[in-house]
Fold Methyltransferase-like protein 4.
Amino acid sequence: MSVVLVNTQGCVLDARSLIDKGYLQCIRVRENNQKSHVNCRFKGQCFQILKSHLDAIASVAADGGNIETLQKTDKPTKKRKRKRSELNQGEIDSQAFHKKIRSVVLEGTKSLVDSARSLGYLNGTSTTDTVKEPLPSQECSLSALCEMAKELPLVDDEQQEECAQSLVTADGSTSHVDLFSRVTENRADWATVVTLMGEEYVIPPHTAFLLSDFTKIQPLVHYGRRFDLIVMDPPWENKSVKRSRRYSCLPSSQLKRIPIPLLASPNCLVVTWVTNRPSHLRFVRDELYPHWGVEVVAEWLWIKVTTSGEFVFPLDSHHKKPYEVLVLGRFRPSSDNETSSSEASEVPVEDQRLIVSVPSALHSQKPSLSEVLKPYLGAEAKCLELFARSLLPGWTSWGNEVLKFQHTSYFTLTPTDDGAGVLEDEAAEDCTDNPTVTQRLSSSAEYSVDK
């Protein structure tokens, strides 16, 4: 029940179920080539948002707890006192945007939540075994490793034979997998738990990924695929993120260097997560998409609710809102004269659709859009996520933290009832035979689509 329901306002998602769908069959691979079945589920406590943020603060205060830390997350830093009427242009624009969409959010969310409750979802229930457990707190060092990888010696053209590699070698090893300059593929029909860089990660079936920052995206360009759907969640510049140092931000102007025209097929659906800063929304609509040749076709809203269907923040909060924006567009290559027929056959994308879900308590973990966007794609569509922090079955993913939420600390792994014995050869065979070999990009080449 990953997609709980769909109606004219939008849909309700069960984000955890969407993740777990990719791990119905999971095999653990040891360095000695021993393989065993395991049950794999994303930890439920990550989605146990039982109360709105302000209710949680009040609850802690009522119990005599220290609410200083919680209050800091809801209140902006006080630099100087000012009158409420002294709003800067950004705040004025934010209020205007909120006023424009408020009724859509309020009425659409009520309709979707009421329908979900009638199906037994968003009724506030939870499992006690997950509520008592603390959140996973894996320290992610992948972006730092990407920085270190930039200092590696360049590979000679004569040695560049492949741009793709199998996750598990023929002898069951993953120790020599080049994660930084080649696209890595799990070609198996099942999820695989493997050791990479000394840590265990869960890799979904039929997935591919490249671990790098945008200056080393060339192997993805030369991967040989054009994608029908590209979803991206850029690390937008944000004062709170800079203060917390959770991750490195990327200036908006640098996003233009992402080579969408070389990755997108004609009429590719391009979807960008945008913060609630109007300047970011204007940049995507008026600068970024036109620079790539992408036509804006719709704006959707992700509505974040508790397990009982309440907004996680007050709808009219002056600081944080319970929604985020997605800008959807179609790639229209100007040099392609054969796109008119495909444009005529493409499914129109409705505007102002709502996606309602309980958000993850983990910072910057967005719900999967794989099921929501299926109606707007053709059969066998090739899908790509940029700035990814997790993997999706059947998708290609890129980012400098692309494996972050694939670490086993975010999953519950238990042996199957049969004792998790060694698999039979025919069941355990990995897909390393006859790997796809394509031209690998020269590491010395630099690429930019800036005009």
Remarks:
- The domain at 3-75+89-428 is CATH 3.40.50.150 (Rossmann fold).
